[in-house]
């Protein structure tokens, strides 16, 4: 029987060579490698097209290895939807937790405030700052009231005080029925704390030894839980490449694995006591490949360590580096990308950050959007019902392999130089990551890597997002009232810490008894960054300008000729300057220099940018520039590359040029400085 649906069978078969020939013809002499091949920050190339011929023995094995590391039962319920909570008031936090759990979230991440994470008492000035004011067991009881911790995973972010915080949560959970069925994530991570803060309250050797001992006790109490977090977010948010973050994750995981097995713990049990925390950026395919590469490499490490179980627990979180304070609604799109990439990459739990995460405390609406993002991804796509859903895609398989190779080389380099702790201590890792950050910063500045709503399609008149500002004094007063006096000395074992917590010992008290009051280890801390930083600084400055003057700093668009002649460069110039907070005064165009000067004077602007076509520039640009200067323009720009005409344009009064590849923040900063100086308040 003949197939009535011929589809593509009527066309001649195509091959890569034929496609390559056509592609090069379309490029009209331009370099195929430069135009169509993308070089990643990790140094390997991404081709514009992949075929079955790009598969090799390594890529064919990836899917099989990853499939073997996933339990089929994990595909039934989907990944764990983990919601971050940071409201300083434990009582408000409790209401938010219950709302989340009733409406789709399946686990909770509690971030303690800055005071608790540093082991300070509730009298500290950092109480309620950047986290929940949980300082004693009574505070934790308030936050977790009516929460069934044997059903919903409770994860902690306790910073340097992770062990006292873990003991407190363990004390709370062991007093409930079903504790043996609970799967808490205590997230003890001295290496990650050292990387992000630059300090530890004891030596790194002591920190690893103590972490291992406490982990052994925690896993005995909670065999389904994890005690250690191997956290890659500090590295990625400081600017690291995907390969660098993976290398740091592997090196940190190996350090913990060694410490745990040194206590006598079996390697399988030690590996099961750890969870990996991975930051996912907005490069969708890179996020998928990063998680797959991590599973692949950790499987190799476990096999070399003699482990029988090759499974790994991964928590993925939206990378703060990729989010923005400017036009924060676009963050909803960014976190959708990060969450979907995490799900496709095989994350066991995902934290989708609220779109206003960088601005302040999220309310019920922003938390709802964050959790519903994941719910919709699961229910509409069903990707969680497939083991390794990206497996078999030629592009993804090659990207996974190449990323794994790059990360493995960096991991081996870290190990050869003494390990992750040594690299942090001597500052070499920080230096390497900062070099990558400067590259990222340059690519964002010249808009090679565009940021929607920030460097592209900015809206300087957007309505600002406002967040709740809690009464920290009242929260501190209420917290003090919940505390009971505890004067005994706390022991170093988990059982003694738990008993002290039950008797009223605060995190600060336990921390001081464990470590003292001064930092014993100090290294150069990694500096967190956001890609949108330079634009945010300029936009904030522009808002301040408007507050003082009533208007944004402004630039006049000297549009030449008809709309069709100037619109492309006028739009380019408007986006260019408004990305830096400078409002563009636009118009439908002018036929001559005199008309331009008259409109410029009427606008009240002090600076202008000439926008038109190249032929118009040859005929009018010099005359328009001289006329604008005569009319009082103190700075005149031209939209477009000047080429060989630069000297002539500059002689006519054009001060600078804006074109593709120009440093946007630098130009806007100069213009802002000029306008502020002209106003007398520079």
Describe, in plain words, how this protein is organized in 3D.
Helix content is 50%, strand content 10%. The protein is built from 28 helices and 17 strands. The longest helix is centred in the middle third of the chain and has 23 residues, at 394-416. The mean pLDDT is 93. The chain is α/β, with parallel strands linked by helices and 682 residues long. Strands 5-4-3-11-10-9-8-6 form an eight-stranded parallel sheet.
Tally the helices.
Answer: 28
Strand line-up across the major sheet: 5-4-3-11-10-9-8-6
Class derived from helix and strand content: alpha/beta
Query: Which bin fits the share of residues in helices?
Result: 40-55%
Low-confidence parts, pLDDT < 50 over ≥5 residues? none
Distance from N terminus to C terminus (CA atoms, Å) equals: 83 Å
Residues in β-strands, percent? 5-15%
- Quick one: how many beta strands? 17
Shape: globular
Mean pLDDT across all residues, rounded?
93
Report the sheet with the most strands, covering strand number, pairing sense and barrel closure. 8 strands, parallel
- The Cα radius of gyration reads 29 Å
């Amino acid at each position: 029987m003949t197939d009535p649906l011929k589809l593509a069978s009527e066309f001649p078969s195509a091959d890569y060579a034929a496609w390559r020939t056509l592609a090069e013809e379309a490029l009209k002499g331009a370099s195929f490698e430069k135009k169509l091949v993308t070089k990643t920050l990790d140094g390997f190339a991404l081709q514009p097209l992949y075929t079955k011929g790009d598969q090799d023995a390594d890529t064919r094995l990836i899917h099989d290895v990853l499939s073997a590391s996933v339990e089929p039962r994990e595909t039934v319920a989907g990944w764990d939807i983990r919601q971050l909570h940071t409201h300083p008031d434990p009582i408000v936090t409790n209401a938010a937790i219950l709302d989340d759990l009733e409406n789709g979230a399946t686990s909770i991440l509690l971030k303690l405030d800055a005071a608790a994470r540093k082991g300070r008492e509730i009298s500290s000035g950092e109480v309620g700052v950047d986290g929940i004011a949980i300082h004693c067991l009574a505070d934790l009881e308030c936050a977790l009231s009516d929460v069934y911790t044997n059903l919903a995973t409770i994860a902690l972010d306790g910073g340097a005080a992770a062990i006292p915080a873990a003991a407190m949560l363990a004390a709370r959970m062991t007093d409930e029925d079903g504790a043996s069925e609970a799967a808490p994530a205590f997230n003890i991570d001295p290496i990650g704390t050292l990387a992000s803060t630059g300090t530890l309250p004891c030596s790194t050797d002591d920190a690893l030894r103590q972490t291992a001992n406490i982990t052994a006790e925690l896993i005995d109490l909670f065999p389904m839980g994890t005690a250690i977090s191997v956290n890659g977010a500090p590295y990625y948010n400081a600017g690291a490449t995907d390969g660098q973050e993976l290398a740091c994750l592997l090196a940190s995981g190996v350090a913990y694995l060694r410490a745990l097995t040194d206590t006598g713990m079996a390697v399988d049990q030690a590996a099961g006591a750890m969870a990996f925390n991975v930051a996912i950026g907005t490069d969708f395919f890179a996020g998928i490949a990063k998680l797959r590469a991590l599973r692949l490499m950790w499987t190799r490490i476990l096999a070399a360590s003699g482990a029988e179980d090759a499974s790994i627990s991964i928590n993925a979180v939206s990378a703060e580096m990729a989010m923005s304070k400017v036009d924060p609604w676009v963050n909803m799109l960014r976190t959708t990308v990060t969450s979907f990439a995490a799900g496709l990459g095989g994350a066991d739990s995902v934290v989708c950050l609220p779109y206003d995460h960088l601005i302040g405390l999220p309310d019920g609406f922003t938390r709802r959007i964050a959790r519903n993002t994941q719910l919709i991804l699961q229910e509409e796509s069903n990707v969680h019902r497939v083991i390794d859903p990206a497996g078999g895609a030629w592009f993804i398989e090659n990207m996974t392999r190449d990323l794994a190779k790059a990360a493995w080389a960096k991991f081996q380099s870290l190990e050869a130089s003494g390990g992750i702790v040594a690299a942090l201590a001597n500052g070499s890792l920080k230096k390497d990551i900062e070099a990558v950050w400067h590259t990222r910063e340059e690519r964002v500045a010249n808009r090679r890597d565009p940021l929607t709503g920030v460097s592209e399609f900015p809206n300087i008149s957007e309505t600002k997002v406002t967040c709740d500002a809690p009464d920290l004094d009242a929260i501190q007063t209420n917290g003090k009232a919940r505390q009971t006096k505890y004067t005994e000395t706390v022991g170093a074992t988990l059982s003694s810490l738990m008993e002290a917590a039950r008797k009223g010992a605060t995190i600060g008290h336990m921390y001081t008894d464990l470590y003292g009051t001064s930092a014993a280890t100090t290294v150069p801390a990694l500096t967190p960054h956001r890609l949108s930083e330079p634009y945010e600084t300029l936009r904030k400055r522009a808002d301040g300008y408007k507050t003082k003057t009533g208007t944004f700093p402004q630039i006049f668009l000297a549009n030449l000729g008809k709309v069709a002649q100037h619109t492309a460069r006028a739009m380019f110039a408007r986006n260019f300057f408004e990305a830096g907070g400078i409002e563009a005064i636009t118009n439908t165009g002018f036929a001559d220099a005199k008309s331009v000067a008259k409109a410029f004077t009427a606008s009240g602007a002090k600076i202008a940018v000439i926008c038109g076509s190249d032929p118009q520039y040859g005929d009018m640009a010099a005359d328009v520039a001289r006329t604008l200067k005569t009319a009082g323009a103190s700075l005149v720009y031209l939209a477009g590359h000047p080429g060989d005409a630069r000297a002539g344009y500059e002689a006519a009064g054009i001060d600078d040029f804006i074109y593709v590849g120009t440093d946007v923040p630098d130009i806007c900063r100069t213009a802002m400085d000029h306008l502020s100086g002209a106003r007398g308040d520079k």
